[in-house]
Amino acid sequence: MKTARSLAALCALASLSTPAFAGFDWGSDCSSGHGDFDQYIPWDDTVLIGSIPAGKKDVTIFLDSLQDVDIQLVDQWTGTEIIAWPSGLLNGPTSECVEWHGVTYCYSGYNGDGTWNGLGFEWISIEGTTNRPLTMSAYGYDAGTALVDYSWDASETCNEVGDGAFSQYIPFDDFVTVGDIPAGKSNVVIDLDARWGADVDVQLWDAGIPLIAWPDGLLSGPDEQVLYWDGMTIWYSGYNGVNGNWGHETIEIYGEVPNDLTMLAYGYEDGTADVIYEWGLGVGEACSTDTQCDDGLFCKFGDDAEGICHTATWCENDFSAQDDCSNLAGRWTAWSCEDYTCEEAFAW
Description:
By secondary structure, this protein is mainly β. Helices cover 3% and strands 48% of the residues. The protein is globular. Residues 1-21 have low confidence and may be disordered.
């Protein structure tokens, strides 16, 4: 039985539960907070502490143990050891920092606080907003329990931008649901690339209306095409694919998605496709009263003099909400701000 994969679910990076010995709890996309838990670390072995998802700002993690333990931090996408002895980007005995894909990672060093009793007291600091999922582990030179204490802030664009990737098997002569694009997302790009060049075609549906589909879709041709639909500009690579690769097709949607859309794929050959997607293109760019933002975005000022491009529902705080949310409704609505999202307080 086929199961629909929701891009909304894929976009919301999963977190772990937080009873003792269970790992981090990062809350929702727009949560700030802190927590702690106990973690047993065996002798001469590496144990998973937990995952740090993308979209978390200014993360700090302390690991405190009476035993000698070492922290490890790995980029899940590339397998790169950011912190690890002996081959990590950070691998020394004392505190140091390194920049990795635009984010600064700092590490106490494997000597911890520098005392004999402090070899098990190590910390990680991530300056900026994480832009890739990370795995944190610990290696035990002695067996024992460590207290893991962590904190983080929400990113200002937590509800507006994101990306992800997954693999999808596409059977021969059949359709499979690739995912749902939820209403409210803006400026979405989806790239489907079948391995070994297997011939697959993508489809995009708005309820029962085929926006992209061969042969009866509003876009159904072999080459690049554009459709203006319900406030969106939809670009399709065409069924001949990118650079003539029949198994590599792309959909780009500019503007705000007003209704849930569903993406399918049909297999002229069976195979596995790699799907990469992102949304919120253009969010965070500078703007002014004289410069426009990309489709689906608005120039908002929050508490600052310089404008920033944001989605329609973004706000900075309660004090700026009336201006930040002014594009959503008429002049007689009072707005509040919750997790960088406009909330209607009352209307009169």
